[in-house]
Amino acid sequence: MSDLPAAWRSYEWRGGRERIAEIGANGPVILFLAPFFEEANRTRHLLIETMRALGRQGYRCVLPDMPGTLESLTPLDSLDWHDWTGAAAAAAAVTGAAHAVSFRGGALLDGAVDVETRWRMAPAEGSALLRDLVRIRLAADREDGGAATAAEVEAQALSAPFEVAGYRIAPGFIRALKAATTTDSAPLRVARLSTDAQPADIKLPGQPLWRRSEPEHDPVLSESIAADIADWIKTCANG
C-alpha cells in the first residue's frame, strides 16, 4: 500500500547536507538505518513500506541517506567511518528520533544515536559485510578473467581505494568497516529470518531481499516487521 507518501527533508553533518525520507504524522519518531551499499538499493522498497505500515499506526518514520550513497553528492571515497556514525547521530538529532530500527549493516551505526529503544533486522558485523564485498568483487573480476584470491582482494581493499558494485570506497573506511561491531545498548530486540540459524529474539518468515540480484519486495515480511517493531516499542514504554 502507498497511501502515505514520502516527504523529503534534509539534515546537516560535518561534511554537508543529505536527504531524509519521512513518512507519517507527528507521532513518536523512528529512525531507520538502511543496509549498506547495494543492499540499501535492494531493500529500499521493503524499508519504505515498513515505514508506511508504522505510519498508519501513528509513528513518524525517517530514513536518511548516508553521505556518499543514493542521492548524495558527496564522493564516497572521501569519507571515513566517523563520517557515517556522525551522520547517523545528526539525522537522529534533527528529527528528534526516539527509536532506532536498523537493517543489516545499519545496526553498526545505531550505537552512535541517542534513542530509547533499538530494533535490528538481521544485524551483520563489519567483517561479514567486508567478506560480502570481496565476494562481489571476485565474481566481477573473474568474469573479466581475473585470478586474484579473496585474501589478495581484501588486502588491496585495505590499502587502496576499493571499487566494487559501482562504489569507490576509501581504504580507511574499509579498515574501519572490518573492525566495526554492533553494540549491546539496551533495550534491544533482534529479529532474523526463519531461515537464519543465528540467535534472535524473534524469527520472521521471508526471504533475504538484501541478497537478491535485483530489488524486490515482500509485503508480508514488511507487515510482520512493522507489527513487531510497534509491539516492541509499546512493551518498552510499559516497562
What does this structure look like?
With 239 residues, the protein is an alpha/beta fold. The chain has two domains: 7-125 and 182-237, Alpha/Beta hydrolase fold, catalytic domain (Rossmann fold), CATH 3.40.50; 126-179, no CATH class. 36% of the residues lie in helices and 21% in strands. The protein contains six helices and ten strands. The strands form two sheets. It has an eight-stranded mixed sheet, with helices on both faces. It has a two-stranded antiparallel sheet with strand order 7-8. Strand 7 (162-164) and strand 8 form a beta hairpin. Helix 1 (38-55) crosses helix 6, helix 3 packs across helix 4 (150-157) and helix 3 (126-143) packs across helix 5 (171-179). The longest helix is centred in the last third of the chain and has 19 residues, at 219-237. It is globular and about 55 Å long. The model has no long low-confidence stretch (mean pLDDT 94). This is Alpha/beta hydrolase.
Fraction of residues in helices?
25-40%
Radius of gyration: 18 Å
Strand portion: 15-25%
User: How many β-strand stretches?
Assistant: 10
Q: Multimeric state of these chains?
A: single chain
Structural class category: alpha/beta
InterPro entries: AB_hydrolase_fold
Protein name: Alpha/beta hydrolase
Organism: Sphingomonas colocasiae
